[in-house]
Each structure stands twice: as structure tokens, then as C-alpha cells.
Amino acid sequence: MPLTNRVVLITGANGGLGTAVTKTFLDAGARVAGVAKKIQNSDFPHPNFIATSAELGSAGAARAVVAAVIAKWEKIDVLVHLVGGFAGGQSVADTDDATLEQMLEVNLRAAFHMFRAVLPDMRTRGTGRILAIGSRTAVDPQPMVGAYSASKAALVSLVQTIALENKDRGISANVILPGTMDTPANRSAMPGADPSKWVRPAQVSSLLLHLASDDASQISGAVIPILGRDL
């Protein structure tokens, strides 16, 4: 198993994508700390899983999560940041401040807090992997989702900056840009769509696992689209 004895912190661990990712990393031998607003150990009954219920809206919350994992398992080898959200349906001219703040909070600030919290220990140990989930619209913006697209574009820039700043400390940082994900929430929200064209969570999970493994040690600063059949 490629991640035996690795400690992996997964945010959004029990969401539509998070459930698949958490199971994939547990199956690969990792010790997984799963973070979400509502999560418990029974969600993933595995001896290598611990649940942490937390909101990541502040630097203090992120530091507390990281400190708890390090206190239990002495390190964090990989951060897989899956937390994100979507709001759209209006032009930039009609988008209100609340929507803009919501998108920046959930798609950018939460990531910034988590990245900043894990980096000191990774830099001290001279190793680490930071992985994030962005969106196709970060590089292929569409109308009526301006605040969402801008927040995801900022996430891409943040990940690439981290890759540059830590390239001499054995730390890689990469971001995946999926198209529409085949999750229960998206099927419910778009009942008339064709989900056979959508991105399967298992494909994203497999790519994240590869990026976390030794086989991808030279990949950093990458922005990787995964679009299913909806090219």
C-alpha cells in the first residue's frame, strides 16, 4: 500500500467527493484525520481513521485541527483540502456582497488558513504534500458564476505560490480542477442533465492518491483539469 504510515489530513472528508477520497486513502494504508462540520468516527469505521468536527472559518480553528492531529500522530504528511462551495446564477453586476463574501470564505480563506497551519511542521521536517480541489471555471470562466470562478482562480494562484515558496523544503503543492462532479447533490440540483458526462469521484480520488505518493514526488505547482466527457 503506497501510503502506509503516512498521516493524511482531509478537509471536507465526508462530502460527496470527500467520502470517496477518504476511503481511497484508507485503502492505501494511510492514517486519515477527517475534518468536517459534522463528522464522527463511525462514518468511516476503520482503525486508521479519526474524525474531527470543526469549521475552518478562522486561522485559530485551522491551527487547532492541525495541532490535534500532530499531537496524536506526530506529523502531517499530506493535506487534502476538499472544502468548497458554490453559489451563482447572477451576473457580476447583480451579485451581492454576501455572495461574494461566501465564495471567498469557503473557497479561498478556508484553504489559506489550512495551508498556513500545516506548512510550519512540513517545513521543519523537510517534506509534505498539499493538494487542493479547485474548479474548471478557475481557468475557463463562465457567465453568471463570477464570484465562484474568481474565488477558485485565487485558490489556483495560492497553491502555485506555495509550490514556489517551498520548492527547496521538500514540499509539493498541486491543484485539481474538476468539471461537474457526479455527486448526489449535483444530481439532485440538475435532474435534467446527463451525469454520464460528469467527473466520477473515484477518478479524482485516484489522482489525489497518485499525487500524494512517492511516484509523484517531482510534480509540484501543477494545475490539473479532469473533465470527464464534458470537454
Structural overview:
By secondary structure, the protein is α/β, with parallel strands linked by helices. The protein has one domain (7-226): 3-Layer(aba) Sandwich (Rossmann fold). Helices cover 40% and strands 16% of the residues. The protein has six helices and seven strands, in the order βαββαβαβαβααβ. The chain has a seven-stranded parallel β-sheet with strand order 3-2-1-4-5-6-7, with helices on both faces.
- Unreliable sequence segments: none
Arithmetic mean pLDDT:
97
Number of strands: 7
- Give the topology string: H per helix, E per strand: EHEEHEHEHEHHE
Principal-axes shape call: globular
- Fraction of residues in β-strands: 15-25%
The end-to-end span amounts to 33 Å
Find the CATH superfamily. NAD(P)-binding Rossmann-like Domain
Q: What is the level-2 CATH architecture name? A: 3-Layer(aba) Sandwich
Radius of gyration: 17 Å
Broad structural category: alpha/beta
Strand order of the largest sheet: 3-2-1-4-5-6-7
| Main beta-sheet annotation | 7 strands, parallel
Our count of helices gives: 6
Helix content: 25-40%
| Count of all domains | 1
CATH-derived topology: Rossmann fold
Task: Indicate the CATH class.
Answer: Alpha Beta
In short:
With 231 residues, the chain is an alpha/beta fold. It has helices at 18-27, 59-73, 97-125, 146-165, 184-189, 201-212, and strands at 7-11, 31-36, 49-53, 78-81, 128-133, 171-178, 223-226.
Q: Which terms summarize this structure?
A:
231 residues, alpha/beta, Rossmann fold, 7-stranded parallel β-sheet, 6 helices, 16% strand, globular
